[in-house]
Amino acid sequence: MASPKIIPYDEAIHAASQPKVWAGGARIVWRSTSARRFPAPYSFRAALEVNGKTAEGWFVDLYFKRSRIPGARDTLSMVLIANSTRIIAIDDNGPSAHVNSVGAGLPFFQQQIDHPHLHIPVPDGSEGYAEPLASSTDQALWRLFLAKANISGAPPFELPEQGQMGFSL
Predict the structure, then answer these.
(1) Are the CB atoms for 94 and 115 separated by under 8 Å?
(2) 3-state secondary structure of 80
(3) The domain containing residue 91 runs over which residues?
(4) What residues contact residue 145 under an 8 Å CB cut-off, 6+ apart?
(5) Is 41 among the domain residues?
(6) Tally of domains in the chain
(7) Residue 113 included in any domain
(8) Looking at the whole model, is its pTM more than 0.85?
């Protein structure tokens, strides 16, 4: 797997703070990314406008996969991509082995962070530092993500339709 693209911290902070307007439609329309896997993973990508124009390489990526284990949390990822780089993200699903190897001097440096967590750029790494979040609803995580990514005009968060999900266990 290719390493993620990394941009300088000041560019990452500028991308995060830059006001962005949702250009991905009035609702989230998930698409199945694999008909062979069960449960099927779903994704959605929305363009973003910056300064009134659709910004090339700037978008929101969403990923969802229902858990196969009854009672276990589903996998959900909300990501702001700018200049082809993961800038801000909220990840949620079961126990995590994410260890912050960047972020020296910050409260969660060199700590293992559980889900859900918020990825933010830090001076020594524009990718890889995560802060723990309290367990919450998908809608609350969506509102937090939009605020942290400075995105306006996005629709309410909806998971894929039950009919798209296949059979439940």
Answers:
(1) yes
(2) strand
(3) 9-157
(4) 78, 80, 88, 89, 90, 151
(5) yes
(6) 1
(7) yes
(8) yes
